[in-house]
Amino acid sequence: MAADQHQRIRRAFMGAALGSAVTFLLTSCSVYPVEVNAIDQLAGVWSDVAGRTVEFKDDGTFTAKGLDKAEVGAECSGIADRQHGTVSLFGTYGEVTFDGVVCEGMKLAFYGSPSSFVACFTRDMTSGGCTDEFSREEADPSDPGREPTT
Predict the structure, then answer these.
(1) Under 8 Å CB-to-CB from 69, ≥6 apart: which residues?
(2) Is the pTM higher than 0.90?
(3) DSSP letters of 63-107?
């Protein structure tokens, strides 16, 4: 009887551990859409692992470096010299317009959690994530002139 009870406890523990691991993996893969309704939630400098950056300003405009080398550059020809534009927020995504470039249907999707989310340029909002994820840069403590953006 004790061995049977031990197995039930072990299965319950393993199930809980597996559930926690799955939750952690899903959260870390940034698949959950996040509501971003105010431009100040977005304002600041964001970067991806390749070193590309996008700076979102309080007035709804952005300036980027390196987007022509990202997936968005392949989808929107002509952005190499025009990596600036506007973003309008609609909850879990933003409508993106590049100044002087025809790039229909480009969006900025938000995934993760409300306190820590990523942004990515995409045309496919149903994919549950995308390549070229941009994260907000933290302030460098050794640079007293730079304000934190989170």
Answers:
(1) 50, 52
(2) no
(3) EEESGGGSHHHHHSTT-TT--EEEEEE-BSEEEEEETT---TT-E
